[in-house]
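User: I'm designing a mutation panel for dolichyl-phosphate-mannose--protein mannosyltransferase and want to avoid disrupting the core. Could you give me a predicted structure to guide residue selection? Please restate the sequence first so the numbering is unambiguous.

Assistant: Good idea. Sequence first, for numbering, then the predicted structure tokens:
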Amino acid sequence: MAQTEPNLDHDISWLLLPSYWAKMVVALISFLCFANSYDGDFVFDDSEAIINNKDLRAETPLGDLWHHDFWGSKLSSNTSHKSYRPLTVLTFRINYLFAGGFYPVGFHVINIILHCTISVLMVDVFSILLGGLQFTSKGRRLNLAPKTSLLAALLFAAHPVHTECVAGIVGRADLLCALFFLLSFLGYCKAFKENKEGHNFSVFWVLVSVILGAIAMLCKEQGITILGLNAVFDALVINKLNLLELIQKLLHKDKSLENTGLLRKGLLLRITLLMSGGASILYIRWRIMGTGPPAFTEVDNPASFADSLFVRAINYNYYYSLNAWLLLCPWWLCFDWSMGCIPLIKSVSDWRIIALAALWFCLIGLICQALCSEDSHKRRILTLGLGFLIIPFLPASNLFFRVGFVIAERVIYLPSIGYCILFTYGFSLLSKQAKKKKILAVAVLGILLINVMRCALRSSQWRSEEQLFRSALSVCPLNAKVHYNVGKNLADKGNQSAAIKYYREAVRLNPKYVHAMNNLGNILKERNELQEAEELLSLAVQIQPDFAAAWMNLGIVQNSLRRFEEAEQSYWTAIKHRKKYPDCYYNLGRLYADLNRHIDALNAWRNATVLKPEHSLAWNNMIILLDNTGNLAQAEAVGREALELIPNDHSLMFSLANVLGKSQKYKESEALFLKAIKANPNAASYHGNLAVLYHRWGNLDLAKKHYEVSLKLDPMAPGTKENYNLLRRRLEQLQKKGGA
């Protein structure tokens, strides 16, 4: 169906492999690049999208996935990011169910397999984009550019900018989107399988392509752009339109338009099917998502909040140039580019304007060649390359709506297809001109080898949060979020002194960074530096009055400072902003207990357990308070209720055992003590209280044994030494009586 075109492979000194072997090589290279990420942890956004996402759990109805965003929030919520990716979340849920819990290996393995599959599909896609679409008489598609399609697929498979998508589990959205994006394109090409001289096509495969495009969009928003690319491909490859000639005729209202091929070969019908399908998909998504745009803050995307249109335009274009640079030189990679990582350009005297000029110089040059070149083959490849580079990037460009990031390496996954087309075409042109073609081929192999090593290094950094966050310090030293995450990781490991340093730097870089203030305030509170902790938390709630966690932590500090009325007010303010806040009710109960407001304390703890039935501390405090106030029957009832909900909690067993012992239910109390000790054998208080039980019960030898274990574990255990001495005197008295 296609005329013979210039062969890009002719001047390339490159190994010609059969299609099967070419795909095996691509699969192997893509696997080697990211294989070392298979045993990585859940890192960065994985916590929110997977670990804290209730949509993954079996108890959540499957239907909820269609009404929630990617992070598990209701799409109707004001806090929702409106990222509607139910099919991606469904794959996470399947991973979770098959693994029997949150084990990251299975999640990582699926991501690696997806990237390998996509890279293999790229061999077929690039063979069409670079060599054209042509079938044999038996309907078998020909690969007219086997060498260049292999090179382009290898460049795609081993591009370091893809690491975030493959090694970061949240990148599953981009991988699934890319998979169905490519299947949609290949499906569209199948529509012309039985085509003779371009007069017939299969409506079925066009519709299949639209459906696959819809599935791609349900994995990630960028997927819808494949419908536009299919239309571009149809116009350029199937109908061989000359875009410049078409534009000129449209501008001059030339009556010979019908001879351009626009009305021939069913192009208008196919474009209509693609456009109506795309419009329907977008409308349905709009209805599901709601009309409200997602809510982002200035730190997420500062350029979009600039008052000046000039500043916004300049900075958007600068972001585009940085994305282009990441494709050309993917050496400086970072998990997050927001929050001061890239300072705003505010005047034309800023030297970074050069990057914009370079970007547009290159783009205008490529566009001119794509439109004006006399070589139709060159026009087609350059236009397709630019199309695949630019069109999938449009949803992330800030042109149609504000996005929640400055730069995100994951959104370059699809646009990198266009980069690989342009790079490979440029290489073929250089090979045609070069006298020493083998040297050029070795140079390209060198680039591939460097990329493979860079992928392996970068994917190893994505294996743990510590490595990932620290790797960003040299790339984005001005990014407050990087310092915050390094500090948080250190704090989670118990290194509070080092964490304080990074939290302070995060607050210095961004004086309105309320989460850094909150975490720093928490550490200072634990170190009893209450005055500074209060100042930080007070500033945090002043900057963000609805920051419930900061209000609660402020209440804890005020309680420690014995400013009880202020603490109570802070707790209630936190609950006002987050009505379902079990930890805040728990701390409020502790405040009431300190004030001897026992009924209020019990009510607060009961609220905590209603909101979070597994809240062990709240249950324990209820049991202990009822025990201390002599309400043994009620304490026993609460203890039994708690153990039904949390049957393996040894602290609850211990508290209930104490109550049962006081109620002279020695046998049952003994069983619970022994069970608690089995779960936590090194708790001195467990052995000490069991010894007291045996002491009361008259089992003096067993009492002596457990007193001694308790004192061995904690020689300073309160009351244990006195009770042990009493027991020894009793035993001595019994021995004297026995001897007499």
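For picking mutation sites, this is relevant: The chain has a mean pLDDT of 89. The two ends are 117 Å apart (CA to CA).
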